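Input/output pair, single chain:
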Amino acid sequence: MEHPFIYISGLPRTGSTMLSEALSFLPYAYILDEPHLGKNYYAVKANDAKLFKEFGIDLYKFSSWRLPFAFFFRRLRPFGFRQDFILHEFKQKLLPQFAKHVAQIGVKEIKHTGWQNYIRHFPEMKVVMLGRDPRDIYISYFKKWKRDNFSWRGPFDPEHVAKFYNREFQMQLIIRDLTDCIEVRYEDLCTDPNILKEIKGFLESPIPGIGKIGAFISSNSKRRNEFLSHGSEITTKSVQKWQNEKDKDLLDHAIAFFSLLPEYSKFWGYEF
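Output:
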């Protein structure tokens, strides 16, 4: 494609969806929502499928007959078989179809298992690495967990959540070291309009102005409250919310979570 492939490297509740929306505006650019291609899988999202169906691109059909092959290769992982079948197919078969209708394509991921496969197939990809104050991350993630009742292995507490974030952060660091990467804090993205301009320049984004903020979350019933809060703008409403958290137990857990991410907090410049 004419413009570089984009990889938004986020963690849950760090603003990756908001940034994906800001960088998605057809026919200029589009960020696919957590497709998990690196894990030799394709988690097609309904919003993505509906959008590209209008151009005659059937994402469900693309993935349906390929997933059994990918499953077969995953079973052969212990024997050293590469786990990049889906990404190979995506690059060779699907990307040329996208190129007919959009100038720039990318993905956003919040779980980075299989990062090697992205780098293998897109060694010159542009990466945006996102960070956020761990206290706000924990409070936001906890409230989403309570509201949406999504699955979580084990108890949802500072220790277990920190284990997940520390593991994913280590993968983010490797991606950062091996690619052309820009680091962006959620707070800066929300408060400084020039940050988005800087990101767009780094990504060589062809989008005039800003993409369709709210496009993803407005179509997701579980995230409707976020859309009602922020609308179609990047706002400061969720910046440093932990400072006004009234639930003392939750705040104590958020502070404990912060203390369990010392390398993450130091890297991004967050302090007590």
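Residues 158-178 form the longest helix (21 residues). Residues 39 and 114 are 5 Å apart (CA to CA).
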